[in-house]
Structure formats: structure tokens, C-alpha cells
Amino acid sequence: MLLIKLDATDSTNAYLKDLLVKQNPPDGTVVQADCQKKGRGQLGREWISDPGKNLTISILKRFDQLKASDQFAISISTSLAIVEVLKRYEVPDIRVKWPNDILSGKQKLCGILVENIVKGAYLKAAVIGIGLNVNQDQFPPGLKATSISLQIGKELPLENVLKDLTGALERQINKFLSGPVENAQVSYEEMLYGKGERMLFSTPLGDSFSGVIQGIDTIGRLVVKRDSGTEDTYGLNEIRMVL
Ligand code: BTN
After folding, report:
1. Whether residue 11 is found in the same domain as residue 124
2. Do the Cβ atoms of 212 and 204 come closer than 8 Å?
3. Residue minimizing CA distance to atom 15 of ligand 1
4. Could you give the ipTM of this predicted complex?
5. How far, in Å, from the CA of 44 to the mean position of ligand 1?
6. Residues in domain BPL/LPL catalytic (predicted)?
7. What is the pTM of this model?
């Protein structure tokens, strides 16, 4: 595995995407930064992390003949890999909040930002960005966030967590590539926060509605039975769950 370790960069995702254009980094290349000056989150948000305390990494996965419609399976596999590692560290009450926030209880422990490189009908590569709170012991008030160390009461060496995470990601992606997509769907649904429960959702237009989460479909869209009685599916960025 090629590990590029940086003291600081704007965003490890941006760094790796730039590298992909300029050079030919191998599958599995990892970019890790102690400090991100413009860490990217979902929906154009910023990702803020205490320098040197947490994992802020981007991993390159290259694919051959993977259908573009399988994009979400890569982010499902990433969520499942993180869950696998957190279980090993005995982090309590792990859940995945759709689409791919990892929670302990109701507090966010990890964010994932996958940026896909699609050519025609195929997904050629994915830059998998992971911000995992490992040893940070304080978060701004009102930010429902936590870290592994706050949850298990001890700090962990970042290099060990990185090694565990890259191994788990490799396993989960290979499992998805070699089996039916329904396997990943079922494993994801087992961890899905709010499944079978009535939850509140908001839309980018500022509306809100409630409904019972049924699960996800085979391309990772959330299936919700709305209070109005209709069962609807929602893609990435179409709705957010209100915690
Ligand atoms: C989110 O929950 O909004 C996604 C956060 C993803 C943050 C990670 S940190 C490493 C990688 N580089 C970035 O700029 N973002 C991702």
C-alpha cells in the first residue's frame, strides 16, 4: 500500500483527485493528513477535525467493469468496514445514519465522502474520504459528535486504526464485488439507524415530513413509508434525516 502522509493539506480528497489526474497512483493509495485546512464534508459542508488527533484520510480504489449504478455499494462497503473496525474496538451502540454517517448512540463518530470517477456507464475509480474521530476529547457545543476514545475510555494509535481500516475496507469491497448486492444491502440494513421507526426528514427546499424507514433499495436509496401512506425512495442529497 502506498501511504502518502502529509502534515497539512487543504483536503485529502482534493489532493488524491489531483494526483489521479497528474500521476498514476496505484489502487489502494492512501493520503493521510494531520491537518486539513479545507476539509470537505457532504453537501458542501466543511469537515473540521483537531490536528493530529483523528484519521483524515482518502483511499483510492480502482475498478474494472463496475457499473456506475453500483456507486452506492462502494459507500455502503465503506460504512460496513468502519462498523467492522469500531466493533473490534468495542465502541458501544454503533449505527449507520443514512446515507453514511457512523454514529455511536446519537453522536457522530465518522463521516464519509466518496467522490466517484465515472466514464460512460462504468465506475472507473473512487476516492473514498473518511474522517474518523479517534482521539479528540472535546467537540464544539451543539455539534452532536464523539470519538472512539470518548466512547471506550482510552486513546488508540492512529497507525493501528489506519491499518485495521484499510484491511476492513479491502475485505468489504471484495465481498461486495464477489457476491450479490443484496448481501451488502442486508448487512447495511442491520446497522441502519431508525429502521422501522418513524423519523423526521428535511428536504433541500426546507420542507419537512415524517415517515417510517423501511430500508434501502439495491442502489442504496432510502425507502420511506410516509405518513401520507405512500412508499417513496430517495437518492443521495434528496433528503436528510433529522436526528
Ligand atoms: C461528512 O460527514 O460530511 C463527510 C466528511 C468527510 C471528511 C473526510 S476527512 C478526509 C477526506 N477529505 C476531505 O476533504 N473530506 C474527507
Report:
1. yes
2. no
3. 40
4. 0.99
5. 10
6. 1-177
7. 0.95
Instruction: Extract the runs of DSSP E, i.e. beta strands, from the chain.
Output: 3-9, 30-36, 55-67, 94-97, 101-104, 107-119, 122-132, 198-202, 208-216, 222-226, 231-234, 240-242
Same domain, 175 and 155: yes
Note whether 137 and 222 are same-domain residues: no
Do 135 and 96 have their domain in common? yes
Q: What share of the chain is helix, strand, coil (3-state, %, to 5)?
A: 30, 35, 35
Ligand 1 atom at minimal distance to the Cα of residue 14: 14
The CATH code of the domain that includes 207 is 2.30.30.100
Give the range of the structural domain holding residue 224, as residue numbers without chain letter.
198-242
Nearest CA to ligand 1 atom 9: 131
The answer to whether residues 114 and 129 touch, using CB atoms and an 8 Å cutoff, is yes
CB of 140 closer than 8 Å to CB of 62? no
- Residues recorded for the chain: 243
The CATH number for 9's domain is 3.30.930.10
Domain count across the chain: 2
How far, in Å, from the CA of 232 to the mean position of ligand 1? Answer: 28
Same domain, 114 and 160: yes
CA of 180 to the centre of ligand 1 (A): 28
pLDDT by residue (tens digit) across 5-37?
999 999 999 999 999 999 999 999 999 999 999
Please tell me the distance between residue 84's alpha carbon and the centre of ligand 1 in angstroms.
19
